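Protein: Flagellar FlbD family protein
Species: Segatella copri
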Amino acid sequence: MSKFIEVTAGTKVLINTDEIACIEPTEDYKDGKEVCVITLIHTTKRNVEGRKFITKESYEEVKQMIIGTK
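Structure follows.
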C-alpha cells in the first residue's frame, strides 16, 4: 500500500512517498522564507515523468513527514 504526505503547494496536495526522487531546501523568492522543493518521478511502461513542487513547509518539516510515514 502506498504512503502519502500532505503538503501545501498553492493548495493542499497529497504526494506518494514512493515517487519522491529528492527534496531540497530553498528560499521563497517572494518573502525569503525557507521552503522545500520536492522532485517527483513517476514511471509507466512507456514514459518517465518528472514534476517539481515548491511547498510552503520547510525542508525539515517535509523530511519529518516522510520519515514518519516510512
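Remarks: Residues 4-69 form one domain.
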